[in-house]
Structure formats: structure tokens, C-alpha cells
Amino acid sequence: MEGLNWTLEEDRQTITVTFPTDPVVQLKLTTARVDALFKILGLLREHMVPAIQGQFAMGQKVEAILDPVWATEPDALAGDSLLHIRDPRYGWLHYLIPSVEAHKLGDLLRAQAELRITDRQSSVVN
Predict the structure, then answer these.
(1) DSSP code at position 13
(2) What global pTM score does this model have?
(3) Residue 30: what are its φ and ψ, rounded to 5°?
(4) What is the DSSP string of 47-83?
(5) SS in 3 state form for 2-34?
(6) For 39-50, what is each residue's pLDDT tens digit?
(7) Residue 67: left (phi > 0), alpha (psi -120 to 50), or beta?
């Protein structure tokens, strides 16, 4: 953010934010406070306008997390799928995916993985 100075301290457990005010104001944030800040900012962002687009425009260049750690388990109440994905920037993110959508997701991932395997095999044969 323009004008603000963000510094990761040597202990790697504290961030100092310096505000260019008169007098200068500094805010020190521990790891726990950064996590809490992410959470409240996310909750507030959900209610801001413009809203985040409801559909993703495919084919965009994105900054993706390579091979994220993930886990899945059935939801105790409805039997839908709870998907947990670890983002190194934001921590564990949790998604409740209805069974019909989980089935679609599984099919799409499987089809994409099989295409990738077929492409590799055909390039080896040629």
C-alpha cells in the first residue's frame, strides 16, 4: 500500500507497519494478530462493493500455489465434503462442497489428470 512501510522483523514473528503520519505511527503485528487481521479483513471484504465476481473467467494468468497440502473429510451433518487446503499465505482454508458438486469436481480433476497422462504417453511413443 502506497505510503505505508511494511517490514518483516528479524525474528520472523513480527511485522512492523509504519504509517507516514506526523508524528510517525508504527503498528507491530505478531503472527497471531496477522492471522486475526486476515480473518476480519476477509469477513469485511465479503460485504464490500464491488463484490468478488461470482464466476471465474478461465484462461487468466494467476499466481497459483504449487502442490498445496490438502485433506478432505465428510461433513458430520449432511455428508457433504469438507475440503481443507493449506495456503502458505493465509493458512488452512475450508470449503463445504455439496455432494453433487464434489462429484463434478472429482470427475473434472480425473479427466484433466487422464488427459495429462495421455499427453505424456503420446509424446514418449512419438
Answers:
(1) S
(2) 0.81
(3) -80, 170
(4) TSSSPPPSS--TT----PPSS--EEEEE-TTT--EEE
(5) CCCEEEECCCCCEEEEEECCCCCEEEEEEHHHH
(6) 999 999 999 999
(7) left
Which cell is 39 given? 480473518
What span, in angstroms and rounded, lies between the C-alpha atoms of 102 and 51? 25
Of 82, 86, 106, 84, the C-alpha closest to 96 is 82
Cell of 30: 505478531
Of 83, 113, 108, nearest in space to 96 by CA: 83
Could you give phi then psi for residue 51, rounded to 5 degrees?
-70, 160
Question: Per residue in 35-78, pLDDT tens?
Answer: 999 999 999 999 999 999 999 999 999 999 999 999 999 998 98
